[in-house]
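Attaching the record inline, Q. Sequence:
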Amino acid sequence: MHSLGKAFVLLAPLGLAACVTTDGDTPPIGLPVATAQLLDANGKVVGLATVTGTDGDLKVRVAVEGLPAGVHGAHIHAVGTCTAPDFTSAGGHWNPTNANHGTMSAAPNPHAGDTGNMTVNAAGTGLLSGSSNGTWTGLLDADGSAFVIHADPDDQTTQPTGNAGARIACGVFKSA
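Structure, as predicted:
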């Protein structure tokens, strides 16, 4: 099976289009689901971000392939727009409560956009299982939100970005 086979089934030619979990992470019936197809600066599909759960306890699952090996900051951003090549149209991190960025910063922390770092292996694949203390109303508000993967690791302290560097992949969340 494909390198992401344990978490995702690839639907050619749409790439990472449908999430099928096999590890017990299938969301309970009736809970909302939002997905964001992640594109790189060239418009190539490189992953899928999925959010499930309840307000204050959103579960974030991300699978990628074709990204550079290493540790990458991964965040929910405040605006549902992903204009290549730099994806700055996604705005800053999603921070509706004005909390501090990063789990190692002064309280209150972390903000709703903090989902952790993602490790991508030498083959270019990676999985992230994180969380957000945000709400569905905020995630899917009038201007939407996006999931962004950065070039560098998030240091979990630098305000307001985590010093995670350039944006290398981005996807807009949509209700599933």
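Helices lie at 136-139. The radius of gyration is 15 Å.

More tomorrow.
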